Amino acid sequence: MAPVLGYWNIHGRAQPIRLMLAYTGTDYEDKRYTSASDWSNDKHTLGLDFPNLPYYLDDDDGVKLTQSVTIMRFIGRINNLDGQSPEERVRIALVEQQLVDYIAALTKLCYDPEFANLKDNYIGNQLAQQLQLLDKFLGNDRPFLAGDNMSYVDFIAFNYIDKVSKLAGNSVIDEYDNLKNYFARILEFPSIENYRENEPKVPFLGRSAQWGNTVDI
Ligand SMILES: N[C@@H](CCC(=O)N[C@@H](CS)C(=O)NCC(=O)O)C(=O)O
What is the per-residue pLDDT for 216? Predict the structure, then answer.
């Protein structure tokens, strides 16, 4: 049976997973909850150790997972997208956690009732510093964050750059050549391009967000 990815009908924490499943050509059921009651009906019936969204059920491999990054690590493992050397694996571990922090800051801002007052400071200070560090970490001679090989963290970073470019404007990465080329490199993968063109058009975040809660961002 095809694996099942369960999540709300938004990008949220599932989008990097969806991009990775598109890239790996994985056949899966894209289960999208559109009501809290549908989710609460399922929540404690799926055999999840820590019931939450997103979840990933893969009968063939005998896994029932939650925690978005753990799901990414698992799909990365079975598709050889989790580092090819100790050096690559430690770079992945480091940047994975850095991206978790970056995305937490972005999400916190987007849900903050003071969003309108906080946005410019976030873009000018926090985001600028994050992009600068990420650009330097990537460097100008590595195609991917791990090194020569693509890995699951690239889907997290790609989605993060995509979202901050929508928030701050596409030109936000213009001064970061490494990141700009990196984003374009991933965007040009036919599987990614094709997925993005044909995916359901849904918001980045949930309805209660101050920004990113409509499809037209
Ligand atoms: N650390 C978890 C956070 C999961 C989480 O907060 N899920 C939210 C959506 S982003 C949710 O609505 N969960 C459903 C629930 O709490 O029942 C992850 O990365 O997966």
Answer: 75
Q: Of all atoms in ligand 1, which is nearest to the CA of residue 12?
A: 10
CA 193 to ligand 1 center in whole angstroms:
27
Q: How far is CA 40 from CA 53, 70, 161, 209, 211, in A?
A: 11, 22, 32, 21, 26
- Is position 212 within any domain? no
Q: Of 38, 59, 80, which residue constitutes the final position of a domain?
A: 80
- The response to whether residue 68 sits with its C-beta less than 6 Å from ligand 1 reads yes
Is there an atom of ligand 1 within 6 Å of 15 CB? no
CA of 34 to the centre of ligand 1 (A): 15
Quick one: CA dihedral 92, 133, 169, 113, positive or negative? positive
Average pLDDT for 169-173:
95
Spell out the residues 6+ positions from residue 6 whose beta carbon is closer than 8 angstroms to its own.
Answer: 31, 32, 33, 42, 46, 53, 54, 55, 56, 57
pTM over 0.85: yes
pLDDT of amino acid 97: 98
Residue 24 covered by a domain: yes
Position 52 pLDDT exceeds 90: yes
pLDDT bracket for residue 9 (50, 70, 90): very high
